[in-house]
Every structure is written in structure tokens, then in C-alpha cells.
Amino acid sequence: MSLRNELRQAKDSGNNAAPDDWYDWYQNMIPAATGVYSNNSLPLIFFSGMNYDTDDSAITNGQDLGNGQYFQPSTFPFANKLVFEVHNYQNSADSCSDIEPGLYNYGYGAMNVSDPAYPNKAPVVMTEFGFDQTDGSVSSAYAQCLKSYLISQPGGPGGWMQWVLSGSYYIRQGRQDDDETWGLLNHNWTAWRNQTVIDDFVKPFVSATLG
């Protein structure tokens, strides 16, 4: 159960905009997670971070979120259901060194049980990443580095979800029958958009993740 997708600063920065800070994140996310757990204790509960869900650092490293408020999973009834989620779209990266330090600092440090800099340990799932299926992006540093990084996480591969399965939209941004070139499926959803991507990237990635 994901609580909120891609928290970000409001476009309307006037008096009606909700604060975009970790303190207010805590004030909303913890009651939401508690509500989910109190009604159904079975689902995993996914916590997304700030800045379009690219930054979970304040909750993984246990820093003061404001007014002396700390994210301490051991104090929550849902502690063993907690999952951190992150998104990444560094598609213009030239090398793994452009990507990996940020991934670790902003989320994946939580999977390294031997690193005391990130005291709040939990699984981390990349719930969004993706690339154009039509222009050779599968061979890019971005795609290949994410794959190698996620399957080499300490304690086992990190989970992931690729944006996006759908090959088209009824309507998107005012355009009817809009094509999605990042979609794994073709425009009519009848076959893979790019069989080579499926065979050389997606299937091996799935196999390596599942072990």
C-alpha cells in the first residue's frame, strides 16, 4: 500500500499551499500508515520521500524532521510492514558514478545493515524508473547501471517497478489516443513494443531479482 505518490512543492506557493517539508510529511504520513495498519495489518506500507520521491534521506538516516520530531520505525505498530520507495529518472547520466552515490544517500543506505549512518533499516523498492523503448536507451548508462545496482544490494536484490506497462492512453495532456514510447506494450497493447528490450533487459532483470 503506497501512501502518496511523488510528493512535491505546490505549484501554487500562496497561502493555500500545504507546507513542503519533512515535519508536515511526518504529520500526515504516520497517521495515514496507522490507519491502514489498524484496518488491515497484512499489507506492506510504502513510504515515499520528498522531491518527487527521489529523496528518503531524512527518514532513513533518522535526522530531526523539525520541532524535535524523528522518524523511528521501532515505535510504530506497523514497523515490520514498512518499505521505503524511491523513484529515479536520471536518464541523462553518463556513468554509474552519476547515479549510485545519490541512490545510496537518498534511500538505499537503509538496506545496508552494517552502515550506522542509516539507522532506520527497511527494504527499499524503486517503484518508478524507465526509458524510451524505441531509441536504444536500453543500452544507456542509466538503464544498465540501475539494473546492476539494484541486483547487487546487500541482503538481496532491491525490488523495482518499471514505468510503464501501458502502450497508450485514452487521453493524456489533452491528446486523445496518445502513444507512450516508454511503454513496454505497443500502442494497441497486443504485443511488446520492443522484443529486444524484453529479452535482453527485462527478463534477465526479473530473473536476477527473483534469484
List the helices and strands and how they pair.
Elements: H1 22-39, E1 45-48, H2 57-60, E2 82-87, H3 100-106, E3 124-128, H4 141-151, E4 159-160, E5 168-172, E6 175-179, H5 195-210
Parallel strand pairs: 1-2, 2-3, 3-4
Antiparallel strand pairs: 5-6
Helix pairs in contact: 4-5
Written description of the protein model:
By secondary structure, the chain is an alpha/beta fold. The protein has 5 helices and 6 strands. It has helices at residues 22-39, 57-60, 100-106, 141-151, 195-210, and strands at residues 45-48, 82-87, 124-128, 159-160, 168-172, 175-179. Strands 1-2-3-4 form a 4-stranded parallel β-sheet. Strands 5-6 form a two-stranded antiparallel ribbon. It is globular and about 50 Å long.
